[in-house]
Amino acid sequence: MTALFDLPPLPQVPVVGSDATYPVRRIFCVGRNYAAHAAEMGVEVDREAPFYFTKTPWAICHSGTSIPYPLETENYHYEMEFVVAIGKPAFRVAQADAMDVVFGYGCGLDMTRRDLQLAARAKQRPWDLGKDVEASAVIAALTPAAEFTIGAQRIALSVNGETKQDATLADLIWSVPELIAHLSRFYHLQPGDLIYTGTPAGVGPVVAGDTIEGTIDGLAPVALSLTEAE
Ligand code: MN
Question: Which of 12, 44, 144, 184 is the most buried (most CB within 10 A)?
Answer without folding.
Answer: 184
